[in-house]
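Retro notes (design track)

What went well: tokenization of the new backbones is finally stable.
What didn't: we kept losing track of which sequence belonged to which structure.
Fix going forward: every design gets posted as structure first, then sequence, in one message. First example under the new rule, 132 residues:
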């Protein structure tokens, strides 16, 4: 799985992932990179909640997830993420625990439980010698 990061100008930094270009910008014209990171948590849980409801024929009208972050005031690092699933008014009570378990399956969240190792390299362009 590869992702390319491009620098099209100004403070814009774009991620190319397959056929998609995901723009970021620190000037407010696009989400900053950290906002995409935060959004990946809630939207990942959201796809599991949505699938859960759709598989059971449960209406998703009014379904919403709010995400709150508790931040360490000294380090500005997030120390707790809370996802509140706002269920539709006719959501069956018997599925409340199950929909929480569905959201808990989020792949982004699972990467916090077993974080990947990071390796960062700086590569110079490779010169190609002409063969005659």
């Amino acid at each position: 799985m590869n992702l390319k990061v491009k620098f099209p100008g100004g403070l814009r930094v774009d991620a190319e992932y397959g056929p998609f270009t995901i723009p970021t910008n620190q000037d407010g014209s696009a989400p900053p990179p950290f906002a995409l990171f935060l959004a990946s948590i809630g939207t990942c849980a959201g796809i599991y909640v949505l699938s859960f409801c759709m598989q059971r024929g449960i209406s998703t009208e009014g379904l919403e997830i709010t995400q709150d972050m508790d931040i360490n005031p000294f380090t500005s690092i997030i120390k707790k993420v809370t996802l509140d699933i706002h269920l539709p008014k006719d959501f069956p009570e018997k599925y409340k625990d199950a929909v929480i378990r569905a959201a808990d399956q989020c792949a982004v969240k699972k990467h916090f439980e077993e974080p990947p190792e990071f390796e960062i390299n700086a590569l110079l362009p490779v010169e190609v010698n002409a063969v005659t």
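Added context from the reviewer: The longest helix spans residues 33-55.
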